[in-house]
Q: What sequence folds into this?
């Protein structure tokens, strides 16, 4: 049970890490990300992220006490550029629109489309990609736009042995498990690429239905965040996390909306997740369940000896659970050094 609690919390809060830096650029960055988000097709969930602030603000702060690890990360970025020609430092903002689809077996499938904007020419980057793919792609048309479709899993498997290091190896393993067999890529604007399944890329170009304003309002509750997300979850979270029919499973199953942010400030990673249940009684039950889980976790981790469990103990100690009406929020403040240890 405790393991599932941590898996749920960390999955929500630490999939992406971000930073709040340089107050005079916040409005400009937020406006750029907002414009990118408005290009997404209708989606059940949205994730927004500023890559420049992640690379230039968050990571140096998180690894300020471990410059060797920061150098290792920068080395991996340089390695990708050398081997593929893609310079990740040219990427500026990312907007992800996620569609939740139910299969006949009542399982939810996650189908995202990713919009990537940067300091590059989209057509030139696609030409570079075609050269790197050595003809292992096919071309289709969406209107007058060329879409290039390639067997993503096959190509990643082929190149996996060429990329050294534990971190990129784990990332590739994750992608191989989760991504669809084929990925479509197209130039949406002169400096913006659309990446995803052919169906979702087609929706991006053709569909007039865009992101629900209510969903955008949730994702912009804290507009200065480097990473923010919001999602409508009409069938709850139990199917996503394979939860048991216990109090936690029932409470998470009642959640109908989620939103949250991750920032870095004053030597800490600040993470927040808010859930909205169908009624106040269910949100109260969720608050009580999470509070009980926190108490159990504190007792379990109180005598922890390993560095990793000590970090978990400090995370639990920092957690603040609040409830307002049908909304329950979890706010965490975690030292940069602890986040660096978890990433390591």
A:
């Amino acid at each position: 049970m405790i393991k599932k609690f941590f898996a749920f919390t960390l999955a929500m809060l630490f999939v992406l890490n971000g930073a709040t830096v340089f107050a005079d650029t916040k409005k400009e960055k937020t406006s750029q990300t907002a414009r990118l988000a408005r290009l997404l097709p209708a989606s059940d969930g949205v994730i927004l992220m500023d890559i420049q602030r992640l690379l230039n603000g968050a990571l140096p702060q998180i690894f300020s006490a471990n410059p060797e690890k920061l150098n290792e990360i920068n080395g991996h970025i340089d390695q990708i550029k050398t081997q593929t020609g893609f310079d990740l430092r040219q990427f500026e903002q990312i907007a992800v629109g996620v569609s939740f689809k139910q299969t006949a077996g009542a399982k939810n499938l996650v189908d995202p489309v990713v919009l990537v904007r940067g300091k590059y020419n989209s057509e030139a980057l696609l030409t570079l990609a075609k050269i790197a793919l050595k003809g292992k792609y096919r071309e289709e048309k969406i209107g007058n736009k060329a879409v290039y479709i390639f067997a993503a899993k096959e190509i990643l498997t082929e190149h996996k042995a060429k990329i050294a290091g534990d971190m990129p190896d784990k990332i590739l393993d994750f992608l191989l498990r989760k991504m669809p067999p084929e990925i479509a890529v197209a130039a949406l604007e002169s400096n913006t690429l659309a990446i995803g399944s052919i169906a979702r890329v087609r929706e991006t170009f053709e569909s007039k239905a865009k992101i629900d304003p209510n969903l955008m309002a949730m994702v912009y509750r804290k507009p200065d965040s480097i990473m923010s997300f919001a999602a409508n979850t009409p069938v709850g979270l139990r199917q996503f996390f394979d939860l048991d029919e216990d109090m936690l499973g029932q409470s998470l199953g009642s959640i109908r909306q989620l939103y949250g942010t991750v920032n870095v400030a004053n030597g800490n990673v600040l993470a927040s997740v808010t859930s909205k249940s169908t009624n106040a009684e269910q949100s109260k039950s969720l608050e009580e369940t999470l509070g009980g889980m926190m108490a159990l976790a504190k007792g379990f981790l109180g005598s922890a000896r390993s560095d990793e469990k000590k970090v978990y103990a400090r995370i639990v100690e920092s957690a603040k659970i609040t409830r307002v009406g049908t909304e329950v929020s979890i706010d965490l403040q975690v030292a940069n050094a602890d986040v660096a240890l978890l990433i390591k």
